[in-house]
Design a protein that fits this description.
This protein has one domain: Aldolase class I (TIM Barrel, Alpha-Beta Barrel). The chain is 45% helix and 11% strand. The protein has a nine-stranded parallel sheet, with helices on both faces. Strand 8, helix 9 and strand 9 form a beta-alpha-beta unit. Helix 6 packs parallel to helix 7. The chain binds zinc ion. The site of zinc ion has 6 residues, from loops.
Length: 372
């Protein structure tokens, strides 16, 4: 099937009942969305955001493509959202995550699509960040009867597997009480994401970087009784964009984990909800294969950062004088309409929207929103 030829249509046009009210989805609604992705053979773009501009661009792209979407924040993305001027960085990471979530809770419904609110890699040092967000999340849950975030990610892939799983179980126990989900990482995603992540050296023996089915089975057995979870699996994926040929994706590795859990527990096909990290710069065919093996979320950051920056560069280049003088020194023309941040930031937002339109087509999520 050529996904790019899929014409976005509303569920109602296809005679399917609308399922979920538009806006931030959590708990059972989030689980229903994950099930819809798996059953429909598509995945959602999970886009790292750092500001209201990037958040709004993600929601705009989702609305334009009639696609549900995942907005996520890394620890430093959340800190940036709060403002780099705040001197207590650790506190700002929590404040920014809360402020960003509230912005999205308030606006998402107006875009007419479902938005999953997620956070990105939290390694051992960042557990206090997750716990800080949960403190705030519990207050929010008490007031609103729903969690602030749909899911948090815990990445303890650099720790021994016993420690990784027991910490995930401990935090999921706390999160499940608020109908939250957790994303865990088994195996190490290469490259670095905002200071968190493993080494990437393609010349080395990278077998230890691939997710081991036995570890996934242990995670499944330990976490399933506690709550809903997804697994960031490593199959040669790396964060960032590298010279073509340097990254060798092996999506078939995902199948081994799915098959082992299915066989041991008599589940249906693809029982695990898998997450594809380092989606930027990936070959379209490998993305389609990964979805076939149960990937329902693909993280994208590097490509959308570039898509946000590129049109600004072009705009400044084309209107260079307006970024040096308020008034044209030659003929006295005011340049306000060029340097007004709304002008060039809008270019940036549209660049990001266009890149996400491509992502929605690649992942098959265009036209598939279950909001209604
Ligand atoms: Zn990642």
């Amino acid at each position: 099937m050529c996904r790019s030829e899929f014409r976005p249509r509303r569920r109602s046009e296809r005679g399917e009942p609308a399922k979920i009210a538009p806006g931030v989805v959590t708990g059972k609604d989030y689980q229903a969305l994950v099930s819809a992705c798996k059953a429909g053979g598509y995945a959602l773009p999970a886009v790292n955001a750092t500001s209201t501009h990037t958040v709004n661009a993600v929601m705009e792209a989702a609305a334009e493509n009639n696609s549900d979407i995942i907005v996520q924040f890394s620890n430093s993305g959340a800190q940036f959202f709060a403002g780099k001027g705040l001197s207590d960085g650790a506190k700002a990471k929590v404040l920014g995550a809360v402020a960003a979530a509230q912005h999205i809770h308030y606006l998402a419904g107006h875009y007419g699509i479902c938005v999953v609110l997620h956070t990105d890699h939290a390694n051992k040092k960042l557990i206090p960040w997750v716990e800080g967000m949960l403190d705030e999340g519990e207050k929010y849950y008490e007031q609103h009867g729903r969690p602030l975030y749909s899911s948090h990610m815990l990445d303890l892939s650099a720790e021994p597997i016993d420690e990784n799983l027991s910490e995930c179980a401990r935090l999921l126990t706390r999160m499940a009480k608020m109908d939250m989900s957790i994303e865990i990482e088994l195996g190490v995603t290469g490259g670095e994401e905002d200071g968190v992540g493993g080494e990437f050296d393609d010349s080395a023996d990278n077998s230890h970087l691939y997710t081991q089915p036995e570890d996934v089975l242990r995670a499944y057995e330990m976490l399933t009784p506690i709550g809903h979870f997804s697994v960031a699996a490593s199959f040669g994926n790396v964060h960032g964009v590298y010279k073509p040929g340097n990254v060798k994706l092996r999506p078939e590795i995902l199948k081994n984990s799915q098959d082992l859990v299915e066989e041991k527990h008599g589940t249906g096909k693809n029982p695990l909800h898998l997450v594809f990290h380092g989606g930027s710069g990936s070959e379209k065919q490998k993305i389609a294969q990964a979805i076939e093996f149960g990937v329902m979320k693909m993280n994208i950051d590097t490509d959308t950062q570039f898509a946000f920056a590129k049109p600004v560069g072009q705009f400044v280049e084309e209107n260079a004088k307006a970024f040096k003088f308020q008034i044209d020194p030659d003929d006295g023309t005011p340049f306000k309409r060029f340097y007004d941040p709304r002008k060039w930031l809008r270019e940036a937002e549209r660049g990001m929207v266009d890149r996400l339109t491509e992502a929605c087509a690649d992942l098959g999520s265009a036209g598939r929103s279950i909001a209604g």
